[in-house]
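Structural prep section.
Before we set up the soaks we want a predicted structure of the protein with shikimate-3-phosphate in place, mainly to decide which crystallisation condition to try first. Input record follows.
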Amino acid sequence: MTGTRPIHNLALIGFMGTGKSAVGRLIAQILHFTYLDTDQVVEFRAHKTIRDIFQQDGEPAFRDWERVIVEELTRRNKTVISTGGGLPAAQANLDSLKTHSLVVCLWASADTIYERVRDHDHRPLLAEAEPLGKIRELLAVREPYYRQADVLVNTERRSVREVAIQVIHQFHMAQVAHR
Ligand code: S3P
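Run finished without errors. Recording the tokens verbatim:
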């Protein structure tokens, strides 16, 4: 339920490989909203890749970057925000997003996520001997946070466009409900 909260923005949350960036970019294009990817902002500010941040400064330093960026998002308008997969697993981040955004979680099973990310090497949390096991483990820990989204959208066997259209529909309905 979104109650009577203001909804100026659309925030996409969900595990790595659920399509947040691709879907978010398309939605921003269709709605003429600004697109903002929290991972890109972190890399721009830190002047290094996420992989280097994890390696050189550690995961807590990366989570600090995310926390600061989330606080700044409260001042945004007409923005589609694509978040890093672990960002909403800090309750304060999730609560903050809900003060200005419709929070939509993109969902996929561990097996589907594995198929989508297996050939990518830029995600430090999956640089493991057993990435599928790690995906299952992280998904189990994060599921209670992802489930707090206003809307849960399944991305299994659906194109980026199909998912984007469904999310836009939900966004319009939420805005009408809050007028
Ligand atoms: C992470 C997900 C990544 C990125 C970082 C950590 C996570 O973002 O923020 O590698 O903790 O799940 P994507 O979900 O965009 O891959």
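Observations: Residues 16, 20, 39, 50, 84-86, 123-125 surround shikimate-3-phosphate (CB under 6 Å).
Flagged for discussion at group meeting.
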